[in-house]
Amino acid sequence: MEKILELISKEVSGAFEAAGYDSALGKVTISNRPDLCEYQCNGAMAGAKQYHKAPFMIADEVAEKLSGNEMFESVESVKPGFLNIKVSPDFIRSYIVRMLHEKKLGVTQPGHQPKVIMDYGGPNVAKPLHVGHLRSAVIGESLKRILKYTGNDVTGDIHLGDWGLQMGLIITELKEQQPDLPYFDPEYKGQYPKEAPFTISELEQIYPKASAKSKEDEEYKAKAMEATKLLQDGNKGYRALWRHILNVSVTDLKKNYKNLNVSFDLWKGESDVHDVIPGMVEYMKNHNYAKISQGALVVDVAEETDTKEVPPCMILKSDGASLYNTTDLATIDTRMKEYHPDSLVYVVDKRQELYFTQVFRCARKTKLVLPETELHFVGFGTMNGKDGKPFKTRQGGVPRLENLIAEIDEKMYNRIKEGTPDISEEEAKDTAHKVAIAAIKYGDLSNQPSKDYVFDVDKFTSFEGDTGPYILYTIVRIKSILKKYSEEGGDAKAALLRNPETDIEKNLMLTLSRFADSVESAAKDLMPNRVCAYIYELANVFNSFYHGTKILSEPDADKKSGYIALLNTTLKVLETGIDLLGFDAPERM
Ligand code: ARG
Question: Which of 168, 363, 488, 495 could make an S-S bridge to 224, C-beta 3.0–4.6 Å?
Answer without folding.
Answer: 168
